[in-house]
Structures are given as structure tokens and as C-alpha cells.
């Protein structure tokens, strides 16, 4: 989206690694960020409680949603229930096909090609306690072309993600997409 076209306010960034390019982007945008590294042997819920604390420290508001981009961990039931109907995820395929545990990155695109699908695309959905099973907010398609590889297909799908994820956040902000009642955690 063009700079200034999104009226939703970004409160900041929470990431699990200091090595992510997203930190540089947050710094460039003047956004606060929190790094919450996974600790070896730590339970999923304990990690998620630390992630929750980091999110809250950024200044949660009544209609705060979590935009889960590039998050490679499965959230615990506690986290999902705490942020129920407020976590928006993006999946690089047309759910319910090619989703679930292990379906990320090249795995998804290879599965689409192996299934000889005619089209692929992006699904933007609410996260629930399943993996890639939450309510679908929007899907956009692109063709699967003869000679496609996981890399070439991934590039087209990522273009859809870049275009439509901010638009979905804007649609949530304006009420064009209605989320179930959201209460502050």
C-alpha cells in the first residue's frame, strides 16, 4: 500500500530473533520492538506468556489485533484464547488445501505443484487453536503456470501477500471486515 493509505496504527513489533530484517524496518519506521527469544526447554505456554507481555507492553488498545507475519511457532491454547479473534495470519495457499502443521514456505508451494493445482494464492485468516483452520477473511488467487517451481510460485504468492495483507488490516480498521467482539486481554 502507498505510504499513508493505511489508517490502522501499528503499535510495534514483537519478534523471536534479533537477526530479522523486520527489526531494521521497525527502526526505520520509528516503531518500538521487543525481542522474545525462545528458551530451550521452555513450554509453549510460558513462551507465549512472554510474547503476550511484550505485546501488552507496546500499548494494547481496545481494538488491537496481532498481525502474525513470519511467525513460525504454533501459539498455545492460552494465547489463542487470550487474543481470541484478534490474531490475523497469512497462509501462502488457498485454505483449506495445503494447510496445517508443516505447511509453510517451500513445502506449501511444492505441495501445490505436486497436486497439479491450476491456481494457488493467499489466504488471510483469523488464528484459532487449529493450524490454518481459523475463519477465512480473504483469499486471492494466482495461476499456477507451466514450468513453475516452488520458487517461482512463491514469488507470485508473496506479491499477493504484500498487496492484500495491509488491505485486510485496513478493512478491519474501517469495519469492512467485521471481527467478532474483541475485549482487551
Automatic annotation (TrEMBL):
Name of the top EC class for this enzyme: transferase
What's the EC number here? 2.1.2.2
Name of the protein: phosphoribosylglycinamide formyltransferase 1
Q: Which keywords does this chain's UniProt record carry?
A: Purine biosynthesis, Transferase
* Pathway this chain belongs to: Purine metabolism; IMP biosynthesis via de novo pathway; N(2)-formyl-N(1)-(5-phospho-D-ribosyl)glycinamide from N(1)-(5-phospho-D-ribosyl)glycinamide (10-formyl THF route): step 1/1
For whether the record's keyword set contains Protease, the answer is: no
Q: Which residues form the Formyl transferase N-terminal domain?
A: 2-169
Q: Which InterPro entries match?
A: Formyl_transf_N, Formyl_transf_N_sf, GART, GART_AS
Which GO BP terms sit in this record? 'de novo' IMP biosynthetic process
Q: Which family does it belong to?
A: Belongs to the GART family.
The molecular function terms of the Gene Ontology recorded here are: phosphoribosylglycinamide formyltransferase activity
GO cellular-component terms in the record? cytosol
Its recorded reaction(s) are: N(1)-(5-phospho-beta-D-ribosyl)glycinamide + (6R)-10-formyltetrahydrofolate = N(2)-formyl-N(1)-(5-phospho-beta-D-ribosyl)glycinamide + (6S)-5,6,7,8-tetrahydrofolate + H(+)
Q: Which SUPFAM superfamilies match?
A: Formyltransferase
